Amino acid sequence: MEVISSPYGVKYIIDGSIKTPAGNFIKMRTVWIIDKDQESPRFVTAYPL
Q: Which residue ranges make up each domain of the chain?
Protein backbone atom coordinates (compact mmCIF):
# COMPACT_ATOMS: atom_id res chain seq x y z
CA MET A 1 0.00 0.00 0.00
CA GLU A 2 1.22 3.47 -0.89
CA VAL A 3 -0.04 6.53 1.02
CA ILE A 4 0.18 10.00 -0.53
CA SER A 5 -0.87 13.22 1.21
CA SER A 6 -2.10 16.20 -0.81
CA PRO A 7 -4.04 19.41 -0.18
CA TYR A 8 -7.22 17.45 -1.06
CA GLY A 9 -6.73 14.62 1.44
CA VAL A 10 -4.87 11.33 1.83
CA LYS A 11 -4.75 8.94 -1.15
CA TYR A 12 -4.27 5.19 -0.73
CA ILE A 13 -3.00 3.03 -3.61
CA ILE A 14 -3.57 -0.67 -2.98
CA ASP A 15 -2.38 -3.55 -5.18
CA GLY A 16 -3.81 -7.05 -4.93
CA SER A 17 -5.23 -10.01 -6.82
CA ILE A 18 -8.82 -10.95 -7.55
CA LYS A 19 -10.30 -14.16 -8.91
CA THR A 20 -12.21 -13.86 -12.18
CA PRO A 21 -15.40 -15.83 -12.93
CA ALA A 22 -13.23 -18.09 -15.14
CA GLY A 23 -11.10 -18.98 -12.11
CA ASN A 24 -8.01 -17.01 -13.14
CA PHE A 25 -6.33 -14.49 -10.87
CA ILE A 26 -5.47 -11.01 -12.12
CA LYS A 27 -3.47 -8.27 -10.42
CA MET A 28 -5.47 -5.12 -9.75
CA ARG A 29 -4.75 -1.67 -8.38
CA THR A 30 -7.39 0.27 -6.47
CA VAL A 31 -7.17 3.90 -5.44
CA TRP A 32 -9.05 5.41 -2.51
CA ILE A 33 -9.00 8.86 -0.91
CA ILE A 34 -10.01 10.23 2.45
CA ASP A 35 -11.00 13.76 1.54
CA LYS A 36 -9.83 16.63 3.73
CA ASP A 37 -12.11 17.02 6.77
CA GLN A 38 -13.73 13.58 6.18
CA GLU A 39 -13.34 10.27 8.02
CA SER A 40 -14.46 7.65 5.49
CA PRO A 41 -12.50 6.59 2.40
CA ARG A 42 -14.00 7.18 -1.04
CA PHE A 43 -13.34 4.85 -3.99
CA VAL A 44 -11.58 6.62 -6.90
CA THR A 45 -10.64 3.98 -9.49
CA ALA A 46 -9.50 0.41 -10.14
CA TYR A 47 -7.59 -1.09 -13.06
CA PRO A 48 -5.66 -4.24 -13.95
CA LEU A 49 -1.88 -4.23 -13.73
A: 2-48
